[in-house]
Amino acid sequence: MQLHDACVTAVLRYIHDSLKTQKTVTFNEVMAAPKCKKYSVGDIGKALELLRRNGYVKADSRFGCSELLAFTATAVTEKGKDYLRTISS
Predict the structure, then answer these.
(1) Which residue of 5, 16, 30, 42 is most buried, as measured by CB atoms within 10 A?
(2) How much of the chain exceeds pLDDT 90, in percent?
(3) Which class for 45: exposed (0-12), middle (13-18), buried (19 or more C-beta within 10 A)?
(4) Each residue of 36-51: pLDDT tens digit?
(5) What is the rounded CA–CA span in Å between residue 21 and residue 67?
(6) 68 CB-near residues (< 8 Å, 6+ apart)
(7) How far apart, in whole angstroms, are the C-alpha atoms of residue 80 and residue 89?
(8) Are the C-beta atoms of residues 25 and 16 closer than 8 Å to each other?
(9) Contacting residues for 88 by C-beta, under 8 A, at least 6 apart
(10) How far apart are CA 84 and CA 66, in angstroms?
């Protein structure tokens, strides 16, 4: 999975939009988002961790058996906002 994948973009957009009205966004909230429902739980988990590891979102994550168990995003970084601007143009 890479940053330009549709799943990663959909997840980042959802987190960005949700954090405008709430303090955190969880893994479960992303999975339930209408534009993210078409992606598998595994793909969403990979997208979330990719965004965190590459500095696009500030978040806490927890793993078990090599799978994402919990994820709580608290902010989209400037790097993440710049990425969203470039793909929206």
Answers:
(1) 30
(2) 72
(3) buried
(4) 999 998 899 999 989 9
(5) 29
(6) 27, 45, 46, 48, 49, 61, 62
(7) 15
(8) no
(9) none
(10) 29
